Amino acid sequence: MTSPTPTAPTKPVVRAADPRTARTRAAIVTGYASLLRDGNCDVSVRDVVTAAGISRASFYTHFDGVNEVALILVREMFAGLGAEYLDERLRTGYRTSEAVRAGQERLADAFWERRATLAPLLEGGQAAATYIEIVRAFAATIEQLLRHDLSRIPAGIDPYLAAVAIANTLVGLLSAWITGSIDADRDLVVDHLIAMLPAWVSQPDSPA
Questions:
Q1: Which of 45, 54, 116, 167 could serve as 139's disulfide partner, Cβ 3.0–4.6 Å?
Q2: What region holds the HTH tetR-type domain (predicted)?
Q3: What tens digit of pLDDT does each residue of 145-170 get?
Q4: Those residues with Cβ within 8 angstroms of residue 39's Cβ, 6 or more apart along the chain or in another chain
Q5: Is residue 8 part of a domain?
Q6: What's the gap between Cα 58 and its chain centre?
Q7: Which segments within 24-91 are labelled E, that is strand?
Q8: Are residues 174 and 189 in contact, defined by beta-carbon separation less than 8 angstroms?
Q9: Average pLDDT in the 111-132 region?
Q10: Does residue 121 lie in a domain region?
């Protein structure tokens, strides 16, 4: 009796992601952003679905609420700031005190310009959870930047933990500023953002 010929294992069928999902999510985020640009500070789900041209059911298929959409814009903001920083480092080749200040100015300006989006997130019923999400998003960008220059990190310092600590410190001050909890002008806020950075982050390089 002959043994049966073994058959090749069946490969799992990999289905491509439905492009309609990506389009709908993009329409929601774009619609939300357009409402903010038009000066609408209190954006509702009804506003977003009208701007995006979708139904409420479709919105809730992708997001739990407008705060979740806002956090996507926050992550994009941090990613953009990180890209600007890396581009500047590539142009100069080293870190200057001017570059350090410029980076913190961009951060402060980004928070202030988006205060209509950020302040409601930081003052609403889910403020504590949202604050943590903002810190996580910022920490992810900071960690990426730190790993581009590992030689600057002191021995025993974990890049991720350092990124979380830095993000929490800076977001704490910026959150208080844009929500009116503190009375300070932009230059004073930037001064303190720089002062609160670890020395190994803020210290300029010596050009070769």
A1: 167
A2: 22-81
A3: 999 888 889 999 999 999 999 999 99
A4: 116
A5: no
A6: 25
A7: none
A8: yes
A9: 86
A10: yes
Rounded to 5 degrees, φ, ψ at 179 are: -95, 0
What residue type is assigned to position 163 of the chain?
A: A
The whole-angstrom separation of Cα 125 and Cα 134 is 15
Condensed to tens digits (0 to 9), the pLDDT of residues 51-106 reads 999 999 999 999 988 888 888 889 999 999 999 988 887 787 778 888 899 999 99
Integer CA distances (angstroms), 178 to 26, 37, 175, in order: 27, 18, 5
- Its pTM stands at 0.79
pLDDT over 80 (residue 35): yes
Confidence of residue 40 (pLDDT cuts 50, 70, 90): low
- We report the CATH number of the domain holding residue 103 as 1.10.357.10
- pLDDT score, position 154: 94
* Long-range contacts at 69-73 (CB < 8 A, ≥ 24 apart): 69/28, 69/29, 69/32, 70/32, 70/117, 70/118, 70/120, 70/121, 71/121, 71/130, 71/133, 71/134, 71/137, 72/29, 73/29, 73/32, 73/33, 73/114, 73/117
Instruction: Compute the distance between CA of residue 91 and CA of residue 112 in angstroms, rounded to an integer.
Output: 27
Q: Helix crossing, 45-52 with 66-92: angle to 10°? A: 70
Q: Which CATH number belongs to the domain containing residue 35 in this structure?
A: 1.10.10.60
Note the pLDDT of residue 9.
47
Domain boundary among 7, 39, 63: 63
Full residue range of the structural domain in which residue 35 is found: 19-63
